[in-house]
## 1
Amino acid sequence: MQKLPLDGIRVLDITVVWAGPYCTSFLADLGAEVIRIESIAKFPPPPTRGIVPRPSEELIRSIGLTGGGLPGRVPGARPWNQVPAFNAHARNKRSMTVDLLKPEGLDIFKSLAKISDVFVENNPPATMDKLGISYDMLKEQNPEIIMLRMPAYGSTGRYKDFRGFGLHMESVVGHGLQRGYRDMDPTTNTSVLMADAAGGTQGAFAVLAALHHRNRTGEGQLVELPQAENVIPFLGGSFMDYSMNGRSASTIGNRHRDALQGCYPCLGEDRWVVITIADDTEWRAFIEVLGYPDWAMSEDFTDHISRYRNHDALDNYIAEWTSQWDNREVMELLQAVGVAAGPVFDQKDAYDDPHLNSRGAFEKAYQEDTGTHMYPGAPYKMSETPISIRRGPVRMGEDNEYVYKTLLNVSNEEYAELERAGHIGMDFQEGVS
Amino acid sequence: MAENHIPPQALSDIRVLDFTHYISGPYCTKLMADYGAEVLKVERPDGGDMARRSGPFPDDNPHHEKSGLFLHLNTNKRGITLNLKSAEGQKIVRQLVREVDVVVESFRPGVMARLGLDYESLRNMNSEIVMTSISNFGQSGPYRDFKGSEIAFYGMGGEMFTTGVAEREPLKMGGDVIQFQAGATAAVATMGAVFAARLQNIRQQVDVSIMETQVGSIDRRMPLLIAYQYTGEVSQRQSLNSAGGYPGGFYPCKDGYVELTGGRVYFSRIVKMLGEPEFLKDPKWYQPGAQQDDDLKAEFEEFFYPWILSRNKQEIWMAAQDARVLSGPLNTIEDLQNDSNFIDRGAFAEIEHPKAGTLRYPGRPFIMEKSPWAIRHPAPMLGQHNREVLIDLGYTDDEIVSLRQQGVI
């Protein structure tokens, strides 16, 4: 077998929704054995495994594609295994089920903690309290264990019990007002998940740092990643602007603070190209491609400062030109002379893109409830330990036999008893909603 | 800043030689440095990292030691200047490569090879070394040499196509968040390479394409790519008048704006937040299809707008939390920096810099109990550690003066 950087590391994962599962997907990609702990007795917070356990076709068609984009837009026998929101992060993971609200469920969890290296969760602090899961409890089972908790606003302070998605957290720390159209008010903002991406990624970095520390010292520890605070460094420029100048940035839309920049229409319906012109050299290259049009020679555009001052007029002229071209043609024309330009790719464009395909950005993977598809792979390449999709998106409870019988040495009789008691299964129980 | 009393840091045994500039690369090595790695940043003698020329600057006066972006991205690193094209510069680099575990670089693909610093050459200098290369579009493929920009990375790699509204052009996100995200991804991958080196004796090169960190991002692109595979449907930007559930989205209030996610399955929580008014007890609000009914939505908003417009964003956030409604105020950076919750939790750091003075910076992204984030020193001034580093390598003061005169450092 190909060696991977995290071979031999076992991660227990009771993460939900976006940020936590993205964190553990990095660890799974790198070779850790990530075991998702799920429950057939309780439906996790939407859209973790969809918005309800057994949605109607009508419901699925009425919601967005992250939660509703099941194959053919028709729910299968186990729709929770078919949700794009889940299957985006579920590669290379294992899944077991246990009802942690029952005493013997918690005992099973403790047995797993004894043989694991890392535990990751991103639930509200109250949820963990209710389950009776804490770092102290884990440490009793396994003194060297590393626990990463990812609460929204931290385990202390007046917002500690506040709920929210990444969307809300990034608004709280100031990103919400820095995105949006320059000429429309913030009520027209739409939802983004950049805080979840940041939380998942830096959560993975946190686990690696803690494992590194453990490798050196033998010490485990508790790591807290407050998701809102975790995003603040991403806003470093505007944060420092306030520190230096007392100024709170508002959105500049698609513009750049120094360069000339925009998103322009191209041939076809809803086709766009983005262009960034950083300096005089790029400007000269740009207008050469356009054939030195009269407007570009006018005094409104003689130097970078006047061009930036007349950005609105400039945008109109550029749009007039780009409208005559396919967006890929604009990219080729401008990149050939050293100007940053690229199409705004929809999902089909991404799959068709020769560059992404030449780099193997998509990999074929199979899962029983969704079939074979091309999935985006790890967001980086490693030359000697290639990171690939070794296993398709995990189905709920798919690894119960492995976890109970192989890892925990549960007998066949006990296993059957745990099935009857509502711990083990691959289907949500009747009545779970 | 006291150098003593700092507990052991997680990565203090990792030495990094850092040839990165602007945002993604420096953010990768900042994460490592802030958790203890010994990072030596190599800058060009003529002006250094281009981030030094990028704002914000105090009073908007450009100064290469006072760029807020640079100061933020380069905490805890030592810095030297080096002309990598000169023979002497090459000699110094070779010596430095022998003393580190990791090289991180963000030159255009091919530049390291032209400098004789491609991975194979680095391995010849130090067989233990691992290397992370961060570039716009990766080390291979037809776009390898293309220029990039924040908006291009998001447009081509990320979910820009569905960001914004259907009536308008696609929209980027704020500031440089995509390039920060790429830096964080590169830090994860670099740690992966460190693990393979230390535990499995495998040395390798990591290739991070900023565009691809978006293709594989949970920020909608990855799930929507998969949804396209499953359904053949391309995702669209929402219309301004989209018939989603209500209330949901961004609303004006007395002193700004708030986001509320309260439609559909969460509607009963909204009712609670509004104090369970009599008219919302009518069963019609709970019938199937009620959340898609424009007339009902209009009737609801007649009550809802006066409620929300007469309250400030903090009040609404509190009321929402009490009713378990997912919500958040659209804070300004001023709101954030003055919020005692974040101040008291230590989410910010006061850092003193010899030229820029004492300023408040973004603090730790996560809290490690036993091996914490710490500021040992501020971002380096251009060439600040030239002498210190060269003395360690065995150079004499005379030789250092001569290197400076030749423009090597």
Note: The mean pLDDT of chain A is 97.
## 2
Amino acid sequence: MPAFLVFVSACASIPPRVGELQAGQAPIELDDTPFFPQRQFQCGPAALATALTSSGADVDLQALVDRVYLPGKQGSLQVEMLAATRTAGRIPYLIDGRLQVLWAELSAGRPIVVLQNLGVVAIPRWHFAVVVGIDTERDVVILRSGTDRRRVTGLRTFLRTWRRSDFWGFVILRPSELPTAVDDVRYLKAVAALENAGRSEEAATAWRTALQAWPNNPVALFGLGNAALARGDNLAAEALFRRMLEAEPSSAAARNNLAMALARQARYEEALREIGIALQANRDPALDRELQHTKTLITNMSRQRASDTQAEP
Amino acid sequence: MKFVRLRTTLLHLVSLAITCTGFSQVSYAGVIDTAYLVDQESRAASLARLEVMLASEKVAGQLESFGVDSALIAERIRGLSDSELLTLEKEMDRQVAAGDALSLVGAVFLVLLILELVGVTDIFKSI
């Protein structure tokens, strides 16, 4: 019993680094942020529609209900909110949950999707809302929330409800944007997931954005190479993988994809030579399987090509 | 010789299945995803193609059991990264689904707690 009470009351304290704002930061509010009032249990799609529209994406609330609402759970999962952002061609970027970061993102014109627990630990009431303003003079946060176009919540209450999700929140980036307090690994991971979702054109733009911030970043070069492969531009892909190999000569993954770019230009001998070097340099057993698979694939491509040539009169 | 050929055919069938499945995150045969370079978690996931394929089928089943229209499932799964898929497969039941619904179990618990505190019940006492 007492242990349980301690657990409940522990939620009341907020770490200072989360709740602090730098002195002299002016109140900010993104008045133009659109509003999609939620229907029952559908705060997820509504919050997502608000943030996606504000990032310039053309979205339809019903389509988002179809993408993130789980009827059997009467709600939406966090990862599905991220997934639906990607299928809309945007990058979901998880923020460090701090007021300072919220303020900086708002200053850059981006509202933030947050997960709150409006209930208590024993009776949770999980809710997605969108932070559109912080009034540093009145100590309030302004949200697009539920059926309220402009819900004003005291800073302390907001932080308490946000704390229960470990201050979980994300911003929606256009492929040409970087977040204000950018963590390079987290950003590159977010773009790789966009590539994974099949949005290679938007991913290409994002890799270029990354290369502007971090010239010759190997992950971004590799990603841009993959985007070139995806649109069938094998020459550009070849050049990008070679550039990455200059930065990291031992990368077996880059050599594997370079081999594919060569094989698709029917340069099978060069391709097999690259795979040979990759197999020698590689130390990752899981990648070894992949390299062997690529080798078989290229060998088959070249045999197929040879028999096609023979069959011609 | 015959065995080798059989094994090769099987291998091809498996790669074909992996490349062709609607849920697969694998972009192109022979090409390694950028996720492989990003972090340990993504690295493992991006090479575990068979596991990812099986996970997406399991997640598809879970989504269907939670009432998602089967025509929408492939599209929903497409946006998930490989590591998210593998996590979701294991933890979907435990994940928070935010939708403002009040938990009845929690409400009952709180009522019991209050009853206990005011001395009406003695339900939490260990016997």
Note: Chain A touches chain B through 75 residues (CB under 8 Å).
